[in-house]
Design goal:
GO terms for molecular function: oxidoreductase activity. The protein has 7 helices and 9 strands; from the N terminus they run βββαβαβαβαβαβααβ. The protein has about 260 residues and is of the alpha/beta class. The chain starts with a strand and ends in a 6-residue tail after the last strand.
Length: about 260
């Protein structure tokens, strides 16, 4: 990757030159880091947000400062219509779609007996149905070389304690979806992979938070990861044509 300056603007030339990416939930945390990493590799980037418009617009400005086009789109991943429509809007705004990063997700943790039916419906709507519908819409837009990358969870490979049944179930469903997409779309030259982050230092789960010590102790390296470390794996997969149907752990050895 090379970088040049044109006036006061930085222009990036990398492995994703000429590509268009959509990162759902791209206004914060892993999503924001991924949007910026893809832009540094040369992609134009759309991000979706549900409530954090300011944060999403900050990401847009940061991408534009790299010399790439960017747009922020409000969309509720748990709404069946909006999940798919966000793909169409992103493709319309940026002239196509080459990379979809299914990052938007929610976590509801707690004992089985405390989980209300509406909790189950909302988690499955956002974490499973929304991902399926966005992926289907993206597949309809992508040509050969398309990439579908989904953010899973280290808990699909190791559940360290009680309280994570609903969240883990929703993320485990994405493993099956990814493998099936790889088979269904492989003949068209479109890949599908899933990345499983471990404890990552974000505003939702800070490395100095009240539950951080226990999470840190579950990793082999004894620390939280960074959003940028996860984004680096996503960027690799966005450029990889002979990797599909695979799970990638970026978890510091959580599952070791």
């Amino acid at each position: 990757m090379t970088t040049t300056r044109e006036g006061t603007m930085t222009t990036v030339h990398g492995t994703l030159d000429g590509k268009v990416a959509l990162v759902t939930g791209g206004g914060r945390g892993i999503g924001a880091a991924t949007a910026l990493r893809l832009a540094r590799e040369g992609a134009d980037v759309a991000v979706t947000y549900e409530n954090g418009e300011k944060a999403a617009q900050d990401v847009v400005r940061a991408v534009q400062a790299l010399g790439r086009r960017a747009v922020a789109l409000r969309a509720d991943a748990g709404d069946a219509g909006e999940a798919a429509d966000a793909v169409e809007r992103a493709a319309g705004a940026l002239g196509g779609l080459d990379v979809l990063v299914n990052n938007a997700g929610i976590g509801v943790l707690g004992p089985l007996e405390d989980l209300a039916p509406e909790d189950v419906d909302r988690v499955l709507a956002v974490n499973v149905r929304g991902v399926f519908l966005a992926s289907r819409a993206a597949a309809g837009r992508m040509a050969e070389g398309g990439r579908i990358i989904t953010i899973g969870s280290c808990m699909t490979q190791r559940v360290p304690g009680p309280g994570g049944t609903l969240y883990t179930m929703s993320k485990a469903a994405l493993v099956g979806l990814t493998k099936a997409l790889a088979r269904e779309l492989g003949g068209r030259g479109i890949t599908a992979n899933i990345v499983h982050p471990g404890p990552v230092d974000t505003d939702m789960n800070p490395a100095d938070g009240p539950f951080a010590a226990g999470q840190r102790g579950m990793t082999a390296v004894g620390r939280f990861g960074t959003a940028q470390e996860v984004a680096a794996t996503v960027a690799y997969l966005a450029g990889a044509g002979f990797v599909t149907g695979a799970e990638f752990s970026v978890d510091g050895g959580h599952a070791a």
